[in-house]
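Predict the 3D structure for this chain.
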Amino acid sequence: MRIGIEGLPLLFHRTGTSTYTHELVQSLRRLNRGDQVILFARDQRMAGDSYHNISFAERAANYIYKEYRLPQELAERGIDIYHAPRDMGLPKTSRLPCASIITLHDIILIRLASDYYSAARARMYERRLRDRVGGADHVITISEFSRKDILDWCDIDPGKISVVHDAVNETFRPVTDEAKLAAVGSRYQLPPRFALCVGSTEPRKNIRNSIKAFTQLRRVRADVQLVVTGVEYCRVGPDQAFAGLDLEGVHFAGYVHDQDMPAIYSMAEVLVFPSLYEGFGLPPLESMACGTPVVTSNSTSIPEIVGDAAVLVDPESPAEIAGALEMVLSSGDVRAGLIEKGTARVATFSWRQCAEETRDLYQRVLSARGH
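Done. Predicted structure below.
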């Protein structure tokens, strides 16, 4: 089987979509079933940046490549099936010379459109996304929550959409090397004791309520600080995103390199992840894999993914978040139980299984086409 996969997500800072693309490609190649897995992306000057920060000219060039040059390249390379690992990765399917699959991780940009777009741009995005979802041979999503959400939004055959879960890379495990921990702590100027919040200034990550909860927690836990990691979303920095909040004891570490995240998770006393909407949510599982307990949202896909291995809270209630953090910080039994359950929970997800299930869907689509 000759499999084409869009490579654009690999050119940017680490996000759920870039992680998914990298892990899927590597795992498909490791299956060793005689397949050729070929990445397709236009050459561009944006490696390591955020898609939101590239110029209009670069975006326009990407669009022209995707809609007109890509179909020619797929035909030239004899691709059997093309997989777009993000919402807008497919060209108009009428232009494609092969079968197509799209991974629609979630419909955050539909459900929370006003946080991202003007009304006119939101309507354009939704129209284009319906076209891609309707035209693809099959749709993959990453949780049962997302599948139900997509079906509620878009009138497609339920048999056309399948759930294939994400997983955690094996590099996420407890880091005990004191020299490495010290080096990472120094690199990001981390305090001796801290709760960790992984996200960005993106509104749905709900870091504002993490900070409000921490302000309450600090009354009884003055020795614990809050560390926030993540890039600026749409050029909105912490000073603007969290204006008006008490930021005493809050440390913004900025962008953290992938290889340093396991050490930071391992050093954290607890992960607080009160996201308002997730199609899957990797940070809670990554934290569990590193032996760090988790306090997270009781909404959208998160309860499905973490099971009983995390403390679930109302993400809209700073008081509830603060209470859960205090419980985890003060009770050794609670911590030990969460760490044990977290280790078991992470083991139920596998990138190899993701690749196998995805490849089975490729075969199913091609068989339906008579290949």
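The longest strand covers residues 2-6.
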